[in-house]
Design a protein that fits this description.
Nucleotidyltransferase, domain 5, alpha/beta, single chain, binds beta-D-glucopyranose, five-stranded mixed sheet, about 425 residues, about 45% helix, Hexokinase, domain 1, 15 strands
C-alpha cells in the first residue's frame, strides 16, 4: 500500500532547502564568521585557532601520525619527502568499539583506558621500538581550545562520544602520560590539529590554490586560512567548528533528534548534515510514514547509500534494506517514495554544507573577486554517498553563478594522517 501522499509530500517539503533559503543560509554563515572574528561570544561558530599556517610542500622527515576522530583510530609512520611527495611506511588501525567485546567511547568508558589503547596502537606502528626518537602529530577531531600547536584542550565531545575524564583536559598530556605508562618515552607528541586542518595541510602540501578544508563524514566541520589581511598577524588556519552553526531552521525531525542526542542544543548543523545523523533522520521520517511511534529503526548513512544507488526496475535493494531494518517489505510505490526521501535528506545535507563553503568564499573575497580555488574535502559521505558531490556542485553554481567556474571540490583521501605528519614537521621550526 502506498504511503499517504499528503503526509509524504509534507515530509519532503520539510527537508527541502530552496534557492532563496540556501542563499540566506550562506549569508547568515558569512555573518556569523564575521562576528566570530570580532567577538566570538556572539557567533555560533567557535572559530578555534590552530597555530599553524599552510605548509611550503618542502617539509621532510619521518613522523608518526595519530588519526583519532571517529570510531576507527589509525596510526601511520609517514616519510615526507618534500616537493609534495610522501610515503606511508607503516599503517595500523583499530576500532574504538567492538560490540560486546570492548568500548572506549560509550557511556562508562574512561580516559586512561582509551589513551592506553591508543598507546598500544602507536607501539604497533613503531614495531615495538622503544629507542628511536619519533615526533608525533596528532589529528584530534573534536572541538579543542588551543594556546599553541601542542596544547589543545577538549572543549566538548561530539559525535556521541562519552568517554569520561577527557573534556577540559589537554589531550596531548593524556597521550604523553599513556605513552610513558606503556614504555614509549621515545615518542613525543609535538602537534595537535583538527581533522579539517589536517585535510587542508595535506592538500596544500601537494597543490596550490587551497584555502578551505572540510570533513564530510560521520561528523562535519570546515576550516579555512584566515589571512588577517588588515593586521600584522600572520595568516593562520581557523577551525570553524562549523558543525555547531545554529542559524538554521530545524524541522520537527531535527528537533526530535537533537533532544534525544548526547548533547542537546549542540552541533545543530552537524546533526542536520553529517553521516552520523542522516540515517536517524531517515528512520524518523519513515517511522512517521508507517504511523510507527518509535523511530529507532537504525538506518545508517550506508543503508541510505544503498537505497539511493538502487537502479533496478523492482528496486530490490531498497526492499531488502528496508525489510532488514523495519521487518516489513515495502511495495514498489513505497520503494520509490523511500528512495526519494533518502535523496532529499542527502540533498539537504549537501546544500547546507555548500552554503557554509560559500559563506567562507564570500568572506575571503570581501569586496574583491572570488579567487580560483579548490576546496579540499575528505570523508565517507563526500566520497561514497552517491550524488553528494553532484549536489554540492549544483548548489555551488546556484550560489556563485559564473564564479562557480573558479571553484571546485577535490577529494583529499587520507588527509587526516598525512596532515598530522606535516604538522609535526612544521612544529620543528
Ligand atoms: C567535530 C569536529 C570535527 C568533525 C569532523 C565534529 O563532530 O566537532 O572537530 O572536525 O566532527 O570529524
Amino acid at each position: 500500500m502506498a504511503f499517504d501522499q499528503e503526509k509524504f509530500q509534507s515530509i519532503i517539503d520539510e527537508f527541502t532547502v530552496d534557492g532563496e533559503r540556501l542563499r540566506e543560509i550562506a549569508a547568515n554563515f558569512r555573518q556569523d564568521l564575521k562576528l566570530g572574528l570580532k567577538s566570538p561570544e556572539d557567533s555560533s561558530l567557535r572559530m578555534l585557532k590552530s597555530y599553524v599556517g599552510l605548509p611550503t610542500g618542502k617539509e621532510k622527515g619521518e613522523f608518526l601520525a595519530l588519526d583519532f576522530g571517529g570510531t576507527n583510530v589509525r596510526v601511520l609512520r609517514i616519510r615526507l619527502e618534500g616537493a609534495g611527495k610522501y610515503e606511508v611506511v607503516k599503517r595500523v588501525g583499530k576500532p574504538l568499539r567492538v560490540e560486546g567485546i570492548y568500548d572506549y567511547v560509550g557511556l562508562g568508558s574512561k580516559s586512561e583506558d582509551m589513551f592506553d589503547f591508543l598507546a598500544g596502537l602507536i607501539d604497533e606502528a613503531v614495531d615495538g621500538d622503544h629507542e628511536t626518537k619519533y615526533l608525533l602529530g596528532h589529528t584530534f577531531s573534536f572541538p579543542s581550545e588551543q594556546t599553541d600547536l601542542y596544547n589543545a584542550k577538549l572543549i566538548i565531545w561530539t559525535k556521541e562520544f562519552a568517554t569520561a575524564g577527557v573534556e577540559g583536559k589537554v589531550v596531548n598530556d593524556l597521550l604523553k602520560e599513556a605513552l610513558e605508562r606503556n614504555g614509549l618515552k621515545n615518542v613525543e607528541p609535538v602537534a595537535v590539529i583538527n581533522d579539517t586542518v589536517a585535510v587542508l595541510l595535506s592538500a596544500a602540501y601537494k597543490q596550490e590554490d587551497i584555502y578551505i578544508g572540510s570533513i564530510y563524514a560521520t561528523g562535519h566541520n570546515t576550516c579555512y586560512l584566515e589571512p588577517y589581511a588588515d593586521s600584522a598577524d600572520a595568516p593562520m588556519i581557523l577551525n570553524l567548528e562549523s558543525g555547531g552553526f545554529s542559524k538554521l531552521a530545524p524541522n520537527r525531525f531535527d528537533t526530535m533528534l537533537d533532544e534525544a542526542s548526547e548533547k542537546p542544543g549542540e552541533q545543530r548543523l552537524e546533526k542536520m548534515a553529517s553521516g552520523r545523523y542522516m540515517g536517524d533522520l531517515f528512520s524518523m521520517a519513515l517511522a512517521l510514514l508507517h504511523d510507527d511511534a518509535q523511530w529507532r529503526y537504525g538506518f545508517t548513512s550506508i543503508d541510505m547509500s544503498g537505497i539511493i544507488s538502487d537502479e533496478s526496475a523492482d528496486l530490490s535493494e531498497v526492499v531488502r534494506i528496508v525489510a532488514t531494518r523495519t521487518g516489513s517489505e515495502p511495495d514498489l510505490a513505497e520503494c520509490r517514495d523511500i528512495q526519494k526521501l533518502a535523496k532529499t535528506i542527502l540533498n539537504r545535507s549537501a546544500r547546507l554544507v555548500t552554503a557554509t563553503f560559500v559563506g567562507i568564499i564570500w568572506q575571503l573575497a570581501g569586496k574583491g573577486e572570488v579567487k580560483e580555488q579548490h576546496i579540499a574535502v575528505d570523508g565517507s559521505v563526500y566520497e561514497k554517498m552517491p550524488g553528494a558531490k553532484e549536489n554540492i556542485m549544483r548548489a555551488l553554481s546556484e550560489l556563485l553563478g559564473q564564479d562557480a567556474a573558479k571553484v571546485d571540490t577535490i577529494l583529499d583521501n587520507g588527509g587526516s594522517g598525512l596532515g598530522a605528519a606535516i604538522a609535526a614537521a612544521m612544529a620543528q621550526k
